[in-house]
Amino acid sequence: ERGLQLLELGGSVEEDCIRIARCFEATRQRCCRLEQDGRRAREQLARVEAERAALEVKLKHARNQVEVEMKKRHRAEAELEKQERKLQLVLELLMREPWGNEALSREQCSVLSALAGRRLGAALAPSRRSSAVDESCQSLLSHSDISYDRTEDDVVRS
Question: Is residue 122 part of a domain?
Fold first, then answer.
C-alpha cells in the first residue's frame, strides 16, 4: 500500500525510487527480526517440550512407585491382620482352658484378658490402619486422594 501511495505522489522518479528502496529495507529488517523471534521461540519450545517429556517420565515412575508401595502396604496389613487373628485365637484358648488359668498367675491372666479385649476390638475394626505407619500428613499424602486416571497420558499432543 505504501509503495502505491509513494508512486501516486508524483515526485521525481529518483526520489520515488529512494523512498521505495527505504520502504523495502524497513520491510526486510522487520522480516529479519521476525525470523529471529521465530527461531528463538522454536528453540524455547524445544527446551520446554524436552523438560515436559522428562517430567512425564518422572511422573510415570512416581505413579508406578506409589502403586508398588500401596501393594506392599496392603500385603503387610493383610499379614498383620492374619497374625492378629492367630494371636487372638491363642489368647482365647489360654483364657478358656482350665489348665491355662491354673498355670498363669492372676496378674498374667489380667494382662492376657486386657490384651485379648484390645486385640479383639482392633481386629474387628473394618478399615483399621497399621499403627506403625505415621499418617499425620494424611490430607496431603493419602493414597485415596491420589488420582490414578491415566487418560491424560494418552492425550495426543500436537
Answer: no
Closest-CA residue to 91 (of 73, 114, 72, 63): 114
The predicted model scores a pTM of: 0.48
143 located within any domain: no
Reading the block at residue 151, the C-alpha cell is 487418560
**pLDDT block averages, 10 residues each, the chain of length 158:** 61 76 94 97 98 98 98 97 91 74 67 64 48 46 52 52
Query: Does residue 130 sit within a domain?
Result: no
Please check whether residue 94 is in contact with residue 112, taking contact to mean a CB–CB distance below 8 angstroms: yes
Tell me if residue 104 falls in helix, strand or coil.
Answer: coil
Grid cell for residue 34: 521476525
What letter does residue 153 receive in the DSSP assignment? G
What is the extent of the structural domain holding 102? 7-117
Instruction: Say how many domains are in the chain.
Output: 1
